Each structure stands twice: as C-alpha cells, then as structure tokens.
Write a sequence for this structure.
C-alpha cells in the first residue's frame, strides 16, 4: 500500500465516520431546531408583536417591553416576589442541605434509615407534594394548625392565605424536599480526602476549626454548583405556586412564571408573555454570569 | 461479622447526632405518614385533624377515588401509557445521540455538544408559547403527542450527557475490533454498546419515568379534555373543584395513588437512582 492510497483510505474512513456521526446526532439536530432553538427564536420575534392567536401577530416594536417596565405594576411585583423567593429559598436550601449531608456523612449504624427518611420527601412528585402541603397547612382540617392550637393555645395564621406568610410556606415545601441537594452535598463530602482531617487534627484543630478550614473550603465547588442550580430553579418555579396559591394572596406569591402563564394562557397575550420570557432568559443568564464571575473569589478548586 | 459491619464506627460517642437525626427524620417523614393515614380516614374523621391513626381503615376511599366518584384509574392508565412511551423515547434517542457525540468525529461536533448542554439552562417557560402554537398547528392539542414526541428527539440534554460520559469510558478497542469484523456503527451501537450500558439505561429510565410521571406544565398547556388527563392534571382538577373542603381523605387517597409508583421505582432502583441524582444535581 503506497502513501496516496493510504491517505485516500483514511479520507474515505473519515468521511464515513463523519456521515455516521451526523446520522447519530440527527435526531438531536431535528429536536433542537423544532423544540428548542426554533421556539426560542419565534418567541423573541413574538415579543415584538401583539398576538392573540385569533388574528395574525402585528409588529409593535418595543411596546411590550416598555409596558412591562413602565405601566405594569403587577410585573414589577412579580419580579420582586421572584427575587425575594430566590433570596430566601436558595441560601436556606443550601444551608439545610449541607447541614443534613454532614449529619448523615458517617459510617454509623442505622445511618441508611436516616438517609432514606430525609431523602424520601424529595422523591414525591412536586404536584403531589403541593397537594399534600395544601392539606397539611389547611387551618381547620390540616394537621399543623390544630396541633399548634391544641398544644400552645395560640391560634396560628392561615399560612397560604396570609400575605405575610404565603411565600414562606412555599419556601418551606422546598426545604422539605431538600433531599436532592443533600445527596449532592453528601457526594461532595465523601470526596474530601480523610488525611486532610487527620492533618488538621494533628495541628490541634477542633471540630469547629476542622469545619471552617477543611470542610467548607473543600465544599465550595459543590456549594457553587448548588447555588447556580438553585437560582435557575427558583426562577423557573411554577407548579408549587400555581397549586398552593395561584399567585395570591394580594399577589404576594405572584412568581415570575405564574404571571407569564397568566398573561400568555389566561389572557392570551402571546406577544406580551413572550417579552416576559425574553427578560426571563436575560435574568437567568445575567445571574448565572454574576455568580460565575464572583466564584473565583470564593471557590477553591485545588485538591491537596 | 461481615466486612461492611466491621467498618461501622462505634455509636456511643455519636449519641447527640443520633438524637438530632431521629428528630429530623421524624419531622421529615411526618407529612408522608399523615398522608397515608389521612387517606384511610372516613369523612367524619377528617374533621378530627389531630387524630393520627384512623380506625377502622377506610380502604373504600381508594375504590371511590379510582373507580367510583373519580376516574383516577383512567388517569393512572393515561400516565402509564405516556410514561412508557416517553421513557422509551428518552432512553433510545439519548443513547443513540450520545453514541454519535462520544464515539464519532464529525464537523461541528464540539459546537453542537455545547449548544446541547446550553439548552439545559433555558427554562421551559421560555419555549412554552411557541411550542403551544406549534402543537396547535399540528392539531396535537388534547393528544399525548406533545408529551411524548419531544422525548424521541433528544430534548433532555442531561440524559444525553449521562450516556455520553458512560460511552467515553468504554474501551475503544471494543469498537475497533467490531469495525474490523465488518460491523457498521448502527450494529456496534445496538449489539455491543447498548448491552454493556445497562447501568446508565437504568438511571436514565428511572429519571425519565420520574420526569414524565411528575410533569405538570405540559399537560396543563396541552390537555383540556379530562379523559386525556395524566395524574398530575387529575390531581389538580380534584383540588380545584368545589367539594375539596371536606373530602381531604379522598384527595389524599388520590395523592398516594400518584406517589406509590414513584416510591416503588425509587426502592427498586435506589442504588442507581441516588447515584444518578448525585451525578446530576438536577431534579427531573
């Protein structure tokens, strides 16, 4: 075999491989165009139109965006609610998730029972969990309020109908379903080399110092990961709010996607809802970029 | 004493931790236990909220919810059909696509892979309105196609990613040998790679099942005929009705019906499942 036939052979081999490769990813290309990129571009276009499905979309330029930020007080409200929800939920889920993971991270007897107990609620589908919460927090027929009344004599608020508490009741559901976050933290904890703790102990570090100088720095990549996932999830929250409060009371739980759904599906303002969708993408991108940018200040990647 | 038992630390120095864990586990399990017990209460017992254990057990609640007062048996059936179809779609398409990304070189591979990963960041809400319009144009409203069809086209990037990572770890020599024996890529994928991929297939199948079984937003958008409802929509329609107030025992029976299959799958596939979730960090 001389050089030129060899190179021709590898050329045809390469071509063949490329064709096979494209064949294998072609379902993805189709799905990406039809179900992801296409709809997103269409959504961007619609955001500059007025569209009620019955009549063809009419181009109105930046009007939807102007309306969002200048005259729609509910939209501004929904932005605030979403921000408040994220700022309460994300740190809480991270702190509780990490604390739980540290509690179950030991080779102790019966530990698997505790692991399953704490993890199980997060397996419950969100819709089912929300319905369960709806009953649990029901002031008369649920469990919590009658119990509190019986034990303390204090009559607690109607959590989901009280503007001061409703958002936190929804956060509480998130914290109850902390199991997934806990498991990711557990996996992170188990990757910390044991000898780091031994070295710290030899240096005379107590449990609190070990946590401060070994566990926390070594966990920053996992915290970072959960922080990003947590923010993205908070900005997409829908089912729990839709089922528990539908955005009420007094719009105190009018979270972003619930308002988007209301405008798009209930009022059939497709163009207006699409403008909200575009801002949602920008907000998620901006927040993720912000977290990524600050990450090199506190995330340690060096493995000793 | 087995090796794993020998590795346990003594429990006495950890008594404080045991007490905290016991308390937390009890609190975390309480709503689940109450869900089960409430689903077995008779209607008068519902008004006695702090009575935890009902007696006699009202098993007929399940009969009422499933067959008589509410068509939950139908919703269960619908959910099973949709779940089987979309799990099949997710597993097949993700494995197929991932093989291309992991084992074959072609122009545009890197950029496509990056685009695929990037789709994970964009919320469904962003595509919701155009998707609704597309499915309406296709006359797919009130059918299960919008819940199933996307699964067949690699729309769940994370599943592709899982297969991709697994395929990267496979020895290249295996596929080279098959190529020399004259097998084409399709045969290699189906006859050699897939039979070796049972652990990832299990993880993706469990996650895809959980995702399909729990999906609320798509059915909310695309289904308005209650005969077509999957369980999340069935449950939602039950609580948005007027007669919820005093019928919590029935609502709880319906909720248990929705949760049981997921918990069963979780128990059967626990090892894979926990590992898959740990690797992903993404719920559903």
């Amino acid at each position: 075999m001389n050089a030129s036939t060899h190179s021709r052979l590898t050329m045809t081999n390469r071509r063949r491989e490329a064709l096979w490769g494209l064949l294998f990813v072609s379902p993805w290309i189709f799905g990406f165009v039809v179900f992801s990129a296409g709809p997103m571009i269409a959504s961007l276009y619609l955001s500059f139109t007025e569209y009620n499905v019955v009549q063809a979309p009419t181009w109105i330029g930046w009007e939807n965006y102007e309306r969002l930020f200048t005259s729609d007080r509910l939209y501004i409200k929904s932005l605030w609610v979403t921000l408040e929800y994220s700022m309460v939920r994300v740190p809480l889920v991270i702190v509780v998730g990490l604390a739980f993971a540290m509690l179950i991270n030991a080779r102790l007897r019966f530990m698997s029972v505790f692991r399953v107990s704490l993890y199980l609620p997060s397996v419950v589908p969100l819709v089912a969990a929300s319905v369960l919460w709806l009953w649990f927090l029901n002031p008369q027929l649920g469990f919590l309020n009658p119990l509190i009344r019986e034990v303390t004599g204090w009559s607690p608020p109607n959590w989901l109908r009280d503007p001061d508490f409703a958002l936190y009741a929804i956060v509480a559901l998130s914290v109850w379903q902390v199991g997934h976050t806990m498991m990711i933290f557990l996996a992170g904890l188990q990757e910390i080399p044991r000898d780091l703790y031994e070295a710290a102990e030899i240096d005379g570090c107590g449990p609190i110092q070990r946590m401060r100088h070994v566990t926390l720095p070594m966990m920053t990549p996992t915290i970072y990961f959960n922080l990003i996932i947590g923010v993205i999830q908070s900005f997409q929250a829908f089912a729990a709010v839709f089922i528990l409060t539908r955005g009420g009371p007094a719009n105190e739980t009018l979270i972003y996607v619930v308002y988007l759904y209301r405008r798009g599906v209930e009022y059939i303002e497709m163009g207006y809802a699409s403008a909200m969708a575009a801002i949602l993408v920008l907000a998620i991108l901006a927040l993720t970029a912000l977290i990524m940018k600050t990450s090199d200040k506190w995330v340690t990647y060096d493995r000793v | 004493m087995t090796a794993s038992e020998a590795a346990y630390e003594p429990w006495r120095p950890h008594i404080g931790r045991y007490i905290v864990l016991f308390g937390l586990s009890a609190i975390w399990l309480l709503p689940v236990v109450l869900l089960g017990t409430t689903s077995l209460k008779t209607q008068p017992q519902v008004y006695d909220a702090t009575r935890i254990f009902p007696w006699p057990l009202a098993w007929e609640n399940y009969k009422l919810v499933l067959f008589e007062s509410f068509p939950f048996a139908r919703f269960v059936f619908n959910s099973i059909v949709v779940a089987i179809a979309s799990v099949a779609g997710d597993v097949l398409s993700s494995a197929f696509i991932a093989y291309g990304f992991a084992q074959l070189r072609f122009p545009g591979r890197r950029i496509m892979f990056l685009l695929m990963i990037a789709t994970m960041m964009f919320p469904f809400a962003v595509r919701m309105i155009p998707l609704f319009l597309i499915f309406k144009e296709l006359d797919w409203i009130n059918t299960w196609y919008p819940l199933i069809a996307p699964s067949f086209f690699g729309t769940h990037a994370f599943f592709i990613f899982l297969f991709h990572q697994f395929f990267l770890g496979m020895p290249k020599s295996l596929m080279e040998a098959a190529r020399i024996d004259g097998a084409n890529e399709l045969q290699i994928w189906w006859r050699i790679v897939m039979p070796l991929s049972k652990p990832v297939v299990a993880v993706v199948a469990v996650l895809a099942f959980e995702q399909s079984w729990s999906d609320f937003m798509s059915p909310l958008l695309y289904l308005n005929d209650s005969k077509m409802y999957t369980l999340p929509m069935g449950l939602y329609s039950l609580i948005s009705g007027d007669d919820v107030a005093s019928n919590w025992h029935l609502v709880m029976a319906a909720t248990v019906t929705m949760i049981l299959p997921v918990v069963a799958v979780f128990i059967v596939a626990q090892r894979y499942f926990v590992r898959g979730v740990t690797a992903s960090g993404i719920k559903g």
Remarks:
- Residues 1-5, 280-284 of chain B have pLDDT under 50 and may be disordered.
- Chain B touches chain A through 93 residues (CB under 8 Å).
